[in-house]
């Protein structure tokens, strides 16, 4: 079976930076619903369409095709007293985005002079990445998966 709209695709992948350094790797195959359901980068979907199990591809993703451009407006300074005593660089906190109702995950990138630097950008924002993957499985999506717009794993699933 070939990768097409409304198929569930399993793949292993590695994400590399511009200099070839490994940024992220899926040790276990991940599954996504193919066909513009926001489960996979659109350029990767385009490259995988028509491929079969065992086939590989490598796609260069500019920041706009991956995690977006780096946005300096998503960086905030906050008084350290507003956070738990054990706060440390690398910790993440969920906060309110600029637009009401949006949630932003902020990463603590620095602590100095009683202030925390919180960065709401994705850690890979602003980076050009290379996505290398191998198709491990292709199956038709169920009507429920298509209706919900995502893959349902074995057993129960929960909507958030």
Write the layout of secondary structure elements.
Layout: E1 7-16, E2 22-25, E3 30-33, H1 42-48, E4 56-61, E5 75-79, E6 92-96, E7 103-112, E8 115-119, E9 129-140, H2 143-148
Antiparallel strand pairs: 1-2, 1-3, 1-9, 4-9, 5-8, 6-7, 7-8
Order of helices and strands: EEEHEEEEEEH
Report strand %.
35-45%
Note the overall shape.
elongated
| Total beta strand runs | 9
The CATH architecture classification of the largest domain is Roll
Helix/strand-derived category reads: mainly beta
Summarize model confidence as the mean pLDDT: 91
Q: What are the segments in which pLDDT stays under 50 over at least 5 consecutive residues? A: 155-160
Total helices: the number is 2
């Amino acid at each position: 079976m070939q990768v097409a709209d409304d198929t569930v695709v399993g793949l292993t992948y590695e994400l590399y930076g511009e200099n070839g350094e490994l940024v992220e790797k899926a040790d276990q195959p991940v599954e996504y619903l193919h066909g513009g359901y926001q489960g996979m980068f659109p350029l990767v979907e385009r490259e995988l369409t028509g491929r079969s199990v065992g086939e590989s591809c490598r796609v260069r993703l500019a920041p706009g095709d991956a995690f977006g451009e780096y946005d300096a407006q998503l960086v905030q300074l906050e008084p350290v007293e507003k956070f738990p005593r054990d706060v440390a660089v690398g910790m993440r906190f969920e906060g309110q985005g600029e637009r009401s109702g949006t949630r932003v995950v902020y990463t603590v990138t620095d602590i100095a002079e009683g202030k925390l630097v919180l960065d709401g950008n994705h850690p890979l924002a602003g980076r050009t990445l290379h996505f290398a993957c191998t198709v491990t499985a292709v199956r038709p999506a169920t009507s429920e998966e298509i209706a919900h717009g995502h893959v349902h794993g074995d057993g129960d699933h929960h909507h958030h």
